Amino acid sequence: MLRKQLKAEVKKIQKLPGIIIVTLLCFLFFVMLYYQKAINIHSGFFTPDLLTIEYMSSFNLLLLSLVGFVPISIVGAYIGGIDYVFNTNVYTIGTNGRLKSTIVKMITLFIIILTFICFTVILGVVESIMLNRIKLQNVDWNLLIKQVFSCYIILSLSGLLGFFGATITKRVYGGIMIGTVFPIIFGQMVRYTPFLRPLTIESYTSSIVYHSFHNLSNDPQIQVQIVHRLTYETSLFIIFALIILFCFITTIMVSRRNFNA
Amino acid sequence: MSTIIQSNLLCKEYKKNKALKEVNIEIEAGQVVGLLGKNGAGKTTLNKIITGLTFPSAGSIEVFGKVPIGGDKRIGYLSENIALYPHLSAKENIEISLLQNGHSPNRKQINHILDTVSIDNTRKKAKDFSLGMKRRLQVAMTILTSERDLLILDEPTNGLDLDGVMWLKKMVSECKAQGKTILLSSHSIEQMEDILTDYFILHKGNVVDTGKVDIHNNDLITLELKKEDFSLAIQLLDTTNSTYIQENTDLHIVLHHEYMYYLQILNSNGIYPIAYNLKRKTLVDRFHQFTGGEKDA
Prior knowledge:
The complex is a heterodimer.
Chain A: H1 2-14, H2 17-39, H3 53-67, H4 69-85, H5 89-96, H6 98-130, H7 141-169, H8 172-189, H9 202-212, H10 232-256
Helix pairs in contact in A: 1-4, 1-6, 2-4, 3-6, 3-7, 4-6, 4-7, 4-8, 5-6, 6-7, 6-10, 7-8, 7-9, 7-10, 9-10
Chain B: E1 3-14, E2 17-23, E3 26-28, E4 32-36, H1 43-51, E5 58-63, E6 75-78, H2 90-100, H3 107-116, H4 131-144, E7 150-154, H5 162-177, E8 181-186, E9 198-203, E10 206-212, H6 215-218, E11 219-224, H7 230-239, E12 243-247, E13 250-254, H8 259-268, E14 275-280, H9 283-291
Helix pairs in contact in B: 2-3, 2-4
């Protein structure tokens, strides 16, 4: 039964021009960086010797962890806001109820994030195979799983921010603003107000990235800067707490809201 | 018959605007109820409360014996505004609706639904449909994608041409024949009057009139009385809880019984009208009588 609800949620957004453009741009970004690292000899990033399966998967996951908050929070905003935009809450809330429909939407978001991550890892494998760098025995699977998990947690928070923003404002653009634009602006502002730095999500995600992607440190082009020195576990706990908080606030808000029709 | 909807002193307030004021309604299974009122009378608010999309500010309501909070698949709600996924085709819209209702949609089932609402171009995006076609697709998503026991149709004729209205009446009549309970809101009642069994007239958030849509209830008898008989006649009508309007020497009585019943009561007390006139009163007449001449509520 839940499978059908999830399928319905995916069908709602899969042909939206905004989603298609974001997915396409994301894919092009990955391909472009691969081209610069593996093919373009004049590029400052040209390091084909490094590009093993483990490296490419980690590299793509790092990229997704750092810049994936933009496409994922847009996806979150569309999932959260689509029924408000098209006045279709009459079906979604009418059929599934407030609590179930919110949970279904959140699960849909988490599944889409997992799909993005799996696609990224597979893309890394394919890119390495294209360079004939297949050395499976050298892959540190434990580290790769840790990186997948870290990336998943970071993107879940970004996606939920977009979802939360769209639900609270009843608009997709509200979600995009809160999930994408606001963190960027706030991130720039705290450069001049360092005491506000612990309030940025970036301070916790950068710590997770720092502790998860150390296998990329031999790449001269990659420098992970840690903004807030916290342990991996502490950062993870804070991000988890924020995810649960956003899930809770959104659910409470939807369960008490008066919907338009 | 079992009661499907029952409300008690139902109120809804939006900031300083009272949309519903102590509304009491009772709707039984199998009834086709017309919820009539001008724009802003509170019809949509009442519909949204019944569906569980909106919560009342005060009072109580039960639908199928429970407080409505949404998520009841037995209730189908056709909203007055267009509610479709415009970037998707008619086929995909139906597919989503079927999935949401827990079905496993197949091509045959989807095509059958689209045939029923006379939509041929299944690949055309909903945003490119005419208003009438959008309405048909919405009707399909509300009525045909799941087994409903209660249908709430809010201004269902919006955007439909005459053929569309006839088609909708046929659909509603079929649902009526299947024993479904239907609550139909409209500010253009004349189009739907003949399929209604009961009605409520909402005016400025109040239920100002309710009753059965049958000839007796819609009929009116006008009696021309002698001046000296007037006060006694009114006393007698009051004792029988009759609804009447006094106008000069005329007394207009709304017939809740056969007209002879009223004449016999008057005659047995020595009142013999100079003349009487029977007039069929349509729902539109009643609507205007109770809502006055103002344009909007």
